[in-house]
Specification:
It comes from Budvicia aquatica. By secondary structure, this protein is an alpha+beta fold. The radius of gyration is 17 Å and the shape is globular. A hairpin with a 4-residue loop joins strand 1 and strand 2. It has a single domain, classed as OB fold (Dihydrolipoamide Acetyltransferase, E2P). The chain is built from one helix and five strands, in the order H-E-E-E-E-E. The protein has a five-stranded antiparallel β-sheet with strand order 3-2-1-4-5. The site of copper (II) ion has 4 residues, from strand 3.
């Protein structure tokens, strides 16, 4: 058996499993239309939450955050990836940091417009 090949397929299978999870999670949110329907004319929809950073890749602008329930979106507590308006906002943010988030909803995708580390 070719070890290198076996390792490659394990990595690939793991990658597939992860992408599937993220996709399932995203469509969860998209089935909840309630939050999106609160749009009022002219005022960008904004939501606020706190959370704990579980994964961050500042150079690629990727962050995964465990957030408590967000009432204004009717979202349950969960761990999920968030896109970010400006990836330089992730500089200095580390795994384990407690953060405060401002979220906007372009195309119904919760996107971080502001992130701030909070001390506890
Ligand atoms: Cu979520």
């Amino acid at each position: 058996m070719n070890n290198k090949k076996a390792l490659t397929s394990i990595i690939f299978a793991t990658f597939l499993a992860i992408s599937f999870n993220l996709q399932a999670h995203t469509s969860d949110h998209h089935h909840n239309e309630k939050g999106a329907s609160q749009l009022s004319s002219g005022v960008p929809e904004m939501h606020h939450t706190t959370g704990t950073v579980t994964q961050v890749d500042a150079s690629r602008g990727q962050i995964i955050i465990h957030h408590p329930p967000i009432e204004s979106l009717e979202w349950e507590e969960m761990t999920m990836p968030f896109p970010i308006v400006d990836k330089t906002m992730l500089n200095g943010i580390k795994v384990g940091d407690k953060v405060k988030l401002d979220l906007t909803m372009p195309d119904d995708v919760a996107t971080i417009s502001k992130i701030e580390v909070v001390k506890d």
